[in-house]
Amino acid sequence: MENKKTKGFKAFLKRKDIVFSARRYGIDALGAMAQGLFASLLIGTIIGTIGTQFGLDILVKIGDYAKAVSGPAMAIAIGYALHCPPLVLFSLAAVGFAANECGGAGGPLAVLFVAIVASELGKAVSKETKIDIIVTPFVTIGSGVLLSILCAPYIGKAASAVGEAIMWATKQEPFIMGIVISVIVGIALTLPISSAAICAALSLTGLAGGAALAGCCAQMVGFAVMSYKENKIGGLFAQGIGTSMLQMGNIVKNPKIWIPPIIASAISGPIATCIFKLEMNGAAISSGMGTCGLVGQIGVYTGWLNDITAGVKASITAMDWIGLIAISVVIPAVITPIIALPLRKIGWIKENDLKLDL
User: In the structure, what pLDDT confidence band is assigned to residue 112 with cuts at 50, 70 and 90?
Assistant: First the structure.
């Protein structure tokens, strides 16, 4: 028999719509966070890239402003998914900024964890006092920012630990290096951590940068093409030039949908390093961007120009372009759906498993 205190607590949680469940936090909140990331950092990257390439400073500024609010955007999106009342929802802007700032390479993951805790604490005190307009923001922001200061840096260090495996891989033969780096960085791109920040921190350029680019493209283009039946043209662009992180909610529900893009990463990585000798000699951050706003491809092109200026490279050849296009688009677009086909037939991937709420 449940005692009165237990019954009272359960009734309180129900009244506050606080639900401790894997679905609420691992699917609903995570899926919303990915949309918040897309509506800030990723669309900002796309706009900024267009501005840079066409010399339109106003677009660069717009992109910079959009990217600057990625933490608040993710936190507010999480609060929306958790059905936060207005004062809690608005207070999450400060929480998201703090968590993303303190989290470093693990910023998005830190935002997810901290925003969930702050949201539920804010909901718990919401409208419970006569000075709600002070208490609710104070509890939400206070708990969230304090948790960010205490925990987010460790989440960032855990995310950066991925770099140890990557650095080990850079010392291996090109074939092994291509597989390991492509798979690890590709997975990092889809997870709620920053593959771009990891690549920048490790100064991942050259052949290793090319392998990282291959893995990211395999995830983004692979998911975009594999899920075209469910998500149509909107999903193709959202994932193909946005982020494969949009699929994280679906991956939590059915991890098997991740198999084809991961295998595609393992295949395209060594092709990039051993056959096309694809190198990223532009900014290291571009190695972890994949096809997001075509930043990765522009980084490779910039590297070619840098090599020509330095006298290391004579000219940009047709084989250079073939390799870049094949690794970035063609190989993942062809391989991923082929790998997914038998998985669909045996029921590992079912209809609408890849459906996005776009």
Answer: very high
Confidence label for 202 from pLDDT (cuts 50, 70 and 90): confident
Q: What is the pLDDT of residues 299-345, one digit of tens each?
A: 899 889 988 998 888 899 999 999 999 999 999 999 999 999 999 99
Task: Determine the Cα–Cα distance for residues 45 and 194; give it in Å rounded to an integer.
Answer: 14
What pLDDT does 2 receive? 57
- pTM to 2 decimal places: 0.80
